[in-house]
Design brief:
- There is one protein chain.
- With about 550 residues, the protein is of the alpha/beta class.
- The chain is built from 15 helices and 29 strands.
- The strands form 7 sheets. An 8-stranded mixed sheet has the order 4-3-13-12-14-15-16-17, sandwiched between helices. Strands 18-24-23-21-19-20 form a 6-stranded antiparallel sheet. Strands 6-5-7-8-9 form a 5-stranded parallel sheet, with helices on both faces.
- It starts with a strand and ends in a 12-residue tail after the last helix.
- This is Long-chain fatty acid--CoA ligase.
- Keywords: Ligase.
- It comes from Haloglomus irregulare.
């Protein structure tokens, strides 16, 4: 990383201090009509750090963040890390029991909360081991009036020294396959990811602006967007909820140049835009970024043509802070599902998801892919394993889980399935644990979903496995139809046969009003499985369901 104050940037909380020196009174964030300049962000982060020290926080202590996308979040986040503590962003969309587990597992004795979540925060504190709640506008037993207490703190702070390997942030996994796991991200992990993005695809400068509606408790918004923008001097317009009309209005009114979202957000925005095109001027946009899951190719093409911008996709995980791959904003453009080449700070290998035998390594892709590889066969498809300075230090208090996902060479096994093409670009296939095995055939739900999206009557599609009397399991689909569409189950099932292998077509199609989604709008396949069991009455699919 670049030098700051005469020394290489080695402390993550120095990012806003460097930015304040460079950009001063330039607007860093807006929220609900209020602006926060770079200088104000740095000063407020110092006040937060001073308050935490006054409350007894020491280096290495965990401090929770229970705050939506507002101007309160950035100074609280950097103030925690500047004090030498570990920031624990809390997922606001977790159910109370799971959230309580996360708080207690993290050992966060102090939590900074938002006034718009005052009741939820106090209930959480009452149900967990939280010792002190810092909550604006409230003074009570165990509750400190955060806004008032900050006013008494100085705007300067003598931060403690921390090593690059010390932990700075501890976000948690979603917990869809078990208890959420605390991901230990060091100063080096966070800084390396920012460096990787600024060098490898996220073209951002001080003239850029971003509508940031992806939740800041999620690593993509937290580090790939917020930290990169702060480092480069851009302006972020924070929104706490993904409302299509509000997002489009913000793009128009603020002359926004970039946008980051997930497929469900873009689908919502497109449905609003196509019916009210004259209301929104999106000519300021340079590119938009789609993350978390592949966007159907027809939706991507339609949005790119209508808005006149490229849509950039990439891949990463909480465990990679989240750097991994990204499409370049200029150069070779490919279809939806392409997540670009590997960022230059990372090494990857494609391995067999069962035996972990290496199929393809970074050395075979750089500087040009090995011409002897069979890019049409199974040789270049498998699980992504990644290594680099951005890859996490392990799971908090879960050594057995940590050991299970690393090999002796330091590669982290992601359980994400991808293929590599002849240009060295990766294409996301699916999660290994989402794979459906039907009579020995591997079926990736995302491929079946892509086929369903080709039908003009399908607005959204989600696919999961369901028990089958002969094949063990087989795909079923849940579909949200376009308004006014008249489509039958049989029609959709027959339609998919033109786009996927016979063994991969959905044996049943269920029509629903909405799909179950998590905090980042990813489809929750475990809930689809529960819905399938309910729709099927607990009975397995039968051979007669074949077409």
């Amino acid at each position: 990383m670049e030098h700051y104050d005469g020394a290489p940037l080695t402390h993550f909380a120095d990012v806003p201090a460097m930015a304040a020196d460079r950009y001063g009174e330039k607007t860093a964030f807006t929220s609900f009509g209020q602006e926060l300049t770079y200088a104000q962000l740095d000063a407020k982060a110092n006040r937060v750090a001073n308050l935490l020290v006054e409350q007894g926080v020491e280096p290495g202590d965990r401090v929770g963040l229970f705050i939506p996308n507002t101007n309160q979040f950035p100074p609280a986040y950097f103030g925690i890390i500047r004090a030498g503590a570990v920031a624990v962003p809390l997922n606001l969309r977790m159910d109370p029991n799971t959230l309580g587990y996360v708080v207690n597992n993290s050992e966060a004795d102090i939590v900074i909360a938002s006034p718009v979540l005052a009741d939820e925060a106090q209930n959480l504190a009452a149900a967990t081991d939280i010792g002190t709640l810092l909550l604006p506008g409230v003074t009570d037993d165990g509750v400190v009036n955060y806004s008032q207490a900050l006013t008494d703190q100085p705007a300067e702070f003598d931060r403690p020294e921390r090593d690059l390997g010390d932990i700075a942030c501890q976000p948690y996994t979603s917990g869809t396959t078990g208890k959420p796991k605390g991901v230990l991200l060091s100063h080096e992990n966070l800084l390396s990811a920012v460096e990787a993005y600024t060098k490898g695809g996220l073209a951002v400068d001080a003239d850029d602006s971003m509508v940031l509606v992806l939740p800041l408790f999620h690593i993509f918004a937290l580090n790939a967007i917020m930290s990169v923008y702060l480092y480069k001097g851009g302006t972020m317009h924070l929104q706490p909820e993904p409302d299509a009309e509000n997002m489009l209005t913000a793009l128009d009114e603020h002359d926004v140049t970039t946008m980051a979202g997930v497929p469900a957000m873009y689908t919502m925005m497109w449905q609003e835009y196509r019916g009210n095109e004259d209301q929104y001027d999106l000519s300021s946009l340079r590119y938009v970024n789609c993350a978390a899951a592949p966007l159907p190719d027809n939706v991507r093409r339609t949005i790119e043509e209508a808005w006149g911008v490229p849509m950039i996709e990439g891949w990463g995980m909480t465990e990679t802070a989240p750097a991994g791959t990204i499409e370049p904003s200029h150069g070779v453009r490919k279809a939806a599902g392409c997540i670009g080449p590997v960022l230059e700070t990372c090494d990857i290998k494609i391995v067999d998801p069962d035996g972990r035998e290496t199929k393809l390594s970074t050395e075979q892709l750089q500087p040009f892919p090995d011409p002897d590889l069979d890019f049409e066969g199974d040789e270049t498809t498998g699980e992504i394993a990644i290594r680099g300075p951005n890859v996490f230090e392990g799971y908090y208090k879960r050594p057995e889980k940590t050991d299970a996902v690393f090999d002796d060479e330091g590669f982290f096994y992601t359980e994400d399935i991808a293929r590599v093409d002849e240009d060295g670009y990766l294409w996301m296939v699916d999660r290994a644990d989402d794979m459906i095995i039907a009579g020995g055939e591997n079926i990736y739900p995302a491929e079946v979903e892509e086929a369903l999206y080709e039908h003009p009557g399908v607005a959204e599609a989600g696919v999961s496995g369901a028990p089958h009397e002969v094949k063990g399991e087989a795909p079923v689909a849940f579909v949200v139809l376009e308004e006014g569409a008249d489509v039958t189950e049989a029609e959709l099932r027959r339609f998919t046969l033109d786009h996927v292998a016979t063994y991969a077509h959905p044996r049943r199609v269920f029509f629903v009003d909405e799909l179950p989604r998590g905090a980042t709008q990813k489809i929750q396949r475990f809930k689809l499985e529960e819905m399938a069991e309910e729709r099927l009455g607990g009975e397995p699919l039968e051979s007669g369901d074949e077409l």
